[in-house]
């Protein structure tokens, strides 16, 4: 069975499974390395129309305070007014506005990403990784993908100059998505 012939049976509403989903990011640090992180608290719903994927939709809400780069000092700085300004903007949201099937198992999901109260369009190319019945009788689907944004487009402009030239934090941030969602009854 190909992915395309499998889609009609996947029609339904799905909830993200936070225990098996990673919403991550990668940013340049000091011009020489990358820092990886993720958000640990989020909710999300996808409405899948297997016969007409373009009529599908998704929403995700992320708790900004749940940012985790495995360094408490850095995480505190990222939560501050220099970056996420989480006291004023406790959530990061994404709401799809268009879904386009681009191949047998690939989709471009375009939507409105809101960070720090600034909303910008973002397209995330996703690959359908398949579906499975888990040991508890749940139907699960998986998607993976990534998209690059410029943090300055969302008002995140803090930086520090380096003595050797360049800056401490790169402008481009790669958003990474490893999605596992469970079909709702």
UniProtKB/TrEMBL annotation:
- By its UniProt entry, which SUPFAM superfamilies does this protein fall under? YceI-like
Where the record annotates domain Lipid/polyisoprenoid-binding YceI-like, the positions are 13-182
Any one Pfam family here would be YceI
Superkingdom as given in the UniProt entry = Bacteria
Gene3D superfamilies per the UniProt record, alphabetical: Lipid/polyisoprenoid-binding, YceI-like
The family line of this record is: Belongs to the UPF0312 family.
Q: Check the record and name the PANTHER family matching this protein.
A: PROTEIN YCEI
What name appears for this protein in its UniProt entry? YceI family protein
């Amino acid at each position: 069975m190909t992915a395309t012939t499998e889609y009609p049976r996947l029609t339904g509403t799905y909830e993200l499974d936070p225990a098996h989903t990673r919403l991550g990011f990668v940013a340049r640090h000091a011009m020489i390395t990358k820092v990886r992180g993720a958000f640990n608290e989020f909710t999300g719903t996808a409405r899948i129309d297997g016969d007409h994927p373009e009529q599908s939709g998704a929403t995700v809400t992320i708790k900004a305070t749940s940012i985790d780069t495995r360094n408490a000092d850095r995480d505190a700085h990222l939560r501050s007014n220099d970056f996420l300004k989480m006291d004023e903007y406790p959530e990061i949201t994404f709401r799809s506005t268009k879904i386009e099937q681009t191949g047998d198992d690939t989709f471009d999901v375009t939507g409105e990403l809101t960070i720090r109260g600034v909303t910008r369009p973002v397209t995330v190319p996703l690959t359908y990784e398949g579906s499975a019945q888990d040991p508890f009788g749940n139907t699960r689907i998986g998607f993976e993908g990534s998209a690059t944004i410029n943090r300055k487009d969302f008002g995140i402009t803090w930086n520090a100059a380096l003595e050797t030239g360049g800056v401490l934090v790169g402008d481009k941030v790669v958003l990474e998505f490893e999605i596992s969602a469970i079909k709702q009854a």
